[in-house]
Specification:
Blueprint: H1 2-15, H2 17-45, E1 57-63, E2 71-72, H3 77-80, E3 89-97, H4 98-101, E4 107-110, E5 113-116, E6 120-123, E7 135-138, H5 140-143, E8 149-153, H6 154-161, E9 170-173, E10 176-184, E11 197-199, E12 214-219, H7 225-236, E13 246-251, H8 255-258, H9 271-300, H10 304-312, H11 317-354, H12 365-390, H13 394-399, H14 406-442, E14 452-458, H15 460-463, H16 470-476, E15 481-486, E16 497-499, E17 513-518, H17 522-526, E18 530-533, E19 546-548, E20 551-559, H18 560-565, E21 578-581, E22 584-592, E23 607-611, E24 619-625, H19 630-645, E25 652-654, H20 655-661, H21 664-698, H22 700-708, H23 713-747, H24 758-784, H25 788-792
Helix pairs in contact: 1-11, 2-9, 2-11, 2-12, 2-21, 9-12, 9-14, 9-21, 11-12, 14-21, 14-23, 14-24, 21-24, 23-24
Length: 795
């Protein structure tokens, strides 16, 4: 029975080639695009769900929301160890970047070769209880319990030694010799953890106010996380921190999407992109299904008499229903094969678009998902046409074409309007979203990011030991270097520390002010805009931070918002005023324009610049270079740091590139919207092509008569296109408020944003209407080229 039905379906496909091709093409593109987006969505949602007891693991984070600084993913591990005594906590695991404690731990040598260990972390020995590591050789728990034992990933072992069986190999470093004790398989891509080298160290930060540890807690079942966080906060906070600092507990599976702080081990995902991806998947499947239903109903008119005759000869409604479902099954099978090819061809491009490494294997659950999507969508979409045709009475069928019956016509119109709504709303988003991104990129962050290099993890005594640094003097002598100075904060990422100083009026600042450690000439080095006062200069020795007899003094440059916070009307009034932090006196010598630290979704940051001062364990510098000499300067810096400090493979970053990278996630989100907006519009027009073809087939005699009576091709095209354009207008009226709400909700995430422009909605409406009219007109004009006699000769 099924084989006979499939044979019949093949004959129908050969006879109705246009209908079959349009259905297969629309389905293949729609289903494959939806599956690509679904693969991306599933990948994003799978982060760390496979870790041991993932549902019971949380990360402890330092919450500075009361200061307006938000939550950071790190915390102070020694202080948090007290939480291990709580009955709700089963175990605690900690990681921290070795270079944040001592950069020398990561510089190693093997013979004459020098390296920097990639992503070197200090880890507690119970790592396998929290992270699913595949151990290739050695004993990780023992290695992380023993000093000077080194654990490497597969890729790191290959980089250092050229092979994986390296247990027992030795690497020299500044304080002794590491022995490789274990090797593990590279971490999968769907985890927020990102380390290649692990060591044990009894040394942790002695400063209990520095939060640099990633700390994870495994909880007992049935624990209220919010209540536990309050209990841990009571144990954790120190004198003077109450009301300022609290502990937040974040579920492990939520870290990738909902806790994307700039100091994460690996950049996180975008929950908005996931929501948009799900909506786009549904939209694409809906458009593909709508095309299928519309084309099937429209095509049913040509098969009315066939079905009527079969019913007259004894065929039951059930037999006819299954016959039509077999035809749709054939379409699903062909769609599945073509869809797999489309996915394979487009996957490299899609991976580039979403910045992921997704894979597709047909003979796996992914192929099964493609088959399931193809079958379910085609069969669900085919149920109505199958029921519609199989339930008509033979008498009605044999009387003629019933495709224009009220229910079928209205359903086709509603479905077509739905396509126009989706297409119009997506076009509005595809135009507005890039405008917002361009607007943000034109805004000044308050500093100059171009032609500046940032070098991290340098020894503090080499950079901030005094007003004059031999290291910085040597760097400044490199050809192509304009100026160089300390900078302990990467302005494109996040602040490192903040103060609530006593203001000139004697009151403690109600808001936190970010501290940024710099050197002399910071204004010119960073491209700040000075609005009052002067820059730091060696001519004023008192500018540099000095501590003597328990008292400290330093000159500072503040942003304009600090002036307003202190109660002064103009920046000039702030010059010469003093602020106090404990025993440190800070004298204001300059005021600069506001700073945008991090990405554009954050508020402007109140900040003060302090020469010679830093609370960061390591030092960093900024180097301004001539544009044409950047590559040469980078090479020279690498050689200088290797010869002078024994730092190999130093972290030299382009601040301009880091600034642009802050827009990457939004840029990818916008590109996804743009590409799939065009795809949805294309699929909608594919449906219009099919419906227009069947409309012309049904009204070809009318068209022939009009031509005989002298009607022009354009007038005929306009007459027949009016039906579609009316549906376009209805779709536009529905799409406009929907698009306005969706785009407005996205724009609300930004502090600086554009207003939605009316012309964008006009362009979207005209685009959909024009493309629809052109599609219909081209097909109609092509049809009207047929001689009327060829159509009317049998009448």
């Amino acid at each position: 029975m099924i084989i006979a039905n499939l044979h019949t379906a093949l004959r129908v496909a050969k006879k109705q080639k246009l209908h079959f091709i349009l259905n297969v093409l629309g389905f293949s593109v729609g289903v494959s695009a939806a599956l690509l987006i679904l693969l991306y969505t599933l990948h994003e949602l799978s982060f760390d769900t496979f870790q041991p007891n993932a549902e019971r693991v949380v990360r402890a984070e330092a919450d500075f929301s009361s200061l307006g600084l938000g939550t950071v993913p790190t915390i102070n591990y020694p202080r948090l160890l007290e939480a291990k005594d709580l009955t709700q906590v089963e175990d605690i695991f900690a990681l921290f970047k070795a270079k944040n404690h001592d950069p020398a731990l990561g510089y190693v040598s093997a013979g004459e070769n020098q390296f920097q260990l990639n992503n070197l972390y200090v880890a507690s020995s119970n790592i396998l209880d929290f992270i699913d590591l595949k151990v290739l050789d050695g004993n990780i728990e023992l290695a992380l319990s023993t000093p000077e034992q080194l654990v490497l990933s597969r890729s790191e072992a290959l980089r250092l030694f050229g092979r994986v069986d390296v247990v027992g190999q030795r690497l020299h470093y500044q304080y002794g010799v590491y022995t490789v004790a274990a090797v593990f398989e590279d971490l999968p891509l769907n985890t927020h953890f990102a380390f290649d080298s692990l060591i044990h160290s009894k040394k942790t930060s002695e400063n209990l106010y520095i939060h640099m540890h990633y700390v994870y807690l495994r909880l007992n079942t049935m624990v209220d996380i919010a209540t536990l966080a309050d209990e841990i906060t009571e144990l954790f906070v120190m004198e003077g921190e109450r009301g300022i600092l609290s502990v937040n507990l974040a579920p492990l599976a939520d870290l990738h999407l909902y806790h994307d702080a700039l100091s994460e081990m690996r950049s996180g995902g975008n929950p908005q992109a996931i929501i948009a991806s799900i909506i786009l998947s549904i939209a694409l499947l809906c458009v593909a299904a709508i095309n299928f239903i519309n084309l099937s109903i429209a095509q049913s008119g040509s098969r009315i008499k066939e079905v009527g005759i079969r019913k007259s000869l004894g065929a039951s409604s059930g037999q006819l229903f299954w016959q039509f479902l077999c035809e749709y099954l054939l379409i699903a099978i062909v769609t599945c094969i073509i869809g797999a090819a489309v996915i394979e061809l487009s996957l490299p491009w899609f991976n580039y678009l979403v910045d992921r490494t997704l894979q597709f294997a047909f003979f796996s659950w992914q192929g099964g998902l493609l088959m399931l999507l193809s079958l379910s969508v085609s069969l669900l979409a085919g149920i109505y046409p199958a029921l519609y045709l199989s339930r008509l009475s033979p008498k009605v069928m044999l009387q003629g074409d019933t495709s224009a019956s009220g229910g079928a016509v209205w359903l086709r119109k509603v479905l077509l309007v739905s396509q126009f709504v989706i297409a119009t709303a997506l076009i509005v988003g595809a135009i507005t979203l890039p405008q917002q991104l361009s607007f943000l990129q034109t805004l000044s962050p308050g500093y100059d990011a171009e032609n500046r290099l940032y070098i991290r993890a340098l020894p503090k005594n080499e950079v901030l030991s005094g007003p004059h640094s031999p290291l910085l003097d040597a760097i400044e002598k490199i050809a192509g270097v304009k100026q160089v100075g300390p900078l302990d904060t990467d302005l494109t990422h996040d602040i490192q520390y903040s103060f609530k100083p006593t203001l000139p009026n004697g009151e403690v600042s109600p808001e936190s002010i970010a501290g940024i450690g710099v050197g002399f000439n910071a204004v010119s080095q960073l491209g700040l805009t000075l609005v009052a006062g002067r820059d730091f200069t060696s001519q004023f020795a008192s500018d540099w931070y000095v501590r003597k007899d328990g008292e400290a003094s330093v000159s500072v440059i503040v942003t304009e918002s600090v002036t307003k916070l202190a109660g002064f009307d103009t920046p000039d009034q702030m010059i010469g005023q003093s602020m106090q932090r404990g025993t440190m006196t800070m004298t204001v010598v300059g005021v600069v324009k506001e700073l945008q630290i991090g990405n554009a979704k954050r508020n402007k940051t109140m900040a003060m610049f302090l020469p010679g001062y830093s609370l960061v364990p390591t030092a960093a510098i900024v180097v301004e270079v001539e544009k044409s000499q950047q590559q040469y300067v980078t090479q020279q810096l690498t050689q200088l740091l290797a010869s002078r400090l024994g730092i190999y493979e130093p972290e030299i970053e382009d601040i301009g590139a880091n600034f642009s990278a802050n827009f990457n996630e939004d840029s990818r989100f916008i590109h996804i919207i743009q590409v799939f907006s065009l795809l949805v519009l294309g699929l909608a027009m594919l449906g219009v092509v099919g419906l227009t073809s069947f409309t012309m087939l049904k009204r070809q005699k009318e068209v022939a008569v009009r031509k005989v009576l002298g009607a022009s091709r354009i007038s005929i095209a306009n007459l027949l296109a009016k039906e579609f354009l009316l549906l376009v207008v209805i779709g536009i009226l529905i799409a406009f408020p929907l698009a306005y709400w969706l785009v407005g909700d996205w724009l609300a995430n930004f502090n600086d944003r554009i207003e939605q422009a009316l012309w964008v909605y006009g362009v979207a409406a005209i685009s959909v209407a024009l493309v629809t009219w052109l599609t219909v007109a081209i097909l109609i004009v092509k049809t009207t080229r047929t001689r009327p006699a060829s159509i009317l000769r049998y009448e």
